[in-house]
Every structure is written in structure tokens, then in C-alpha cells.
Specification:
The chain has about 140 residues and is of the alpha/beta class. The chain is about 50% helix and about 20% strand. The protein contains 5 helices and 4 strands. About 25% of the residues are buried.
């Protein structure tokens, strides 16, 4: 199948350069040694993602991203990634960076989870950030 889909729930948002993002994600997935089956990005509001967080993870807090791994076989990427546009905007302001740069970081962060990277410990967080930076620095995929 090998598809990446982009949806909006509860927000008015259009992903700029969706073809560039799609090619970038496919590149990252194959570089990490995985096969893409299907990946769905759902861009939503803080409130929408908060409800998902409570309902499915029993976490009562706001977050910028939730990743659900739906793959049934190893080395395959199949999942749903929910991203709060509200939270990404706020985080971009807090970090003093452009919105699209923060959005691209969050987008790749979800894929990195699906290809086996975690961010629970300081060491894992450092490795995740290094991987994010490596993929964000690729010139042909800049937004």
C-alpha cells in the first residue's frame, strides 16, 4: 500500500508542501530499515488531542503528539499520529522558532517512535533529538 494520509479534525489547517513531507517521511522510514504500509496524520486541536489522551492512554494532560503503532509485523510502519496544531504553535513561540520548523520536528518525532526510538530516559531523549536534527537538516526536505 505504502501511503501517507493527512487529515484534520476540529481545526482548519492545511499542511504546506505535503508532497515534500511525504517524500521526507518515506526517506526516513526506509533509511531506518522499515517498510511503509500506511501512516495517517491527524492534525487537531488541543481539546481534541486531550480527549484522545484521556480515552486511549488514560493521561489527563495536554500534549503535542500521540502516536499509535498499528503494525502487526516487525520492520513495518503502520500507524496513526495525532498532532495538536495549538500545542505546536505554542511550543514554537516558547522555543523562538518558526511554526513550520516545530511542526516538522513533531512530524518526524512520531515516525521515529514507529521505527523503534523512545524518549523516556535522558539517553533516549538525547538520541531522539539527534535523529530529529539529522532528518530536519536534510536540505532537499526543508519547508
Amino acid at each position: 500500500m505504502s501511503t501517507i494520509n493527512f487529515f484534520c479534525e476540529d481545526v482548519s489547517f492545511e499542511l504546506p508542501s505535503s508532497n515534500t513531507i511525504t517524500n521526507w517521511l518515506k526517506y526516513a522510514i526506509t533509511t531506518e530499515g522499515y517498510d511503509l504500509i500506511e501512516l495517517n496524520y491527524i492534525f487537531c486541536s488541543d481539546e481534541y488531542l486531550h480527549k484522545v489522551n484521556i480515552e486511549y492512554l488514560e493521561h489527563d494532560y495536554y500534549t503535542d503528539i500521540i502516536t499509535f503503532d498499528n503494525s502487526e509485523e516487525s520492520q513495518r510502519v503502520e500507524g496513526d499520529i495525532f498532532i495538536s496544531i495549538d500545542r505546536v504553535r505554542d511550543n514554537a513561540v516558547d522555543h523562538g522558532i518558526p511554526f513550520l520548523q516545530e511542526l516538522q520536528r513533531v512530524i518526524i518525532h512520531g515516525v521515529l517512535h514507529l521505527v523503534g526510538y523512545n524518549d523516556k530516559t535522558d539517553t533516549q531523549q538525547k538520541q531522539m533529538t539527534e535523529k530529529e536534527n539529522a532528518y530536519l537538516s536534510l536540505p532537499k526536505f526543508q519547508l
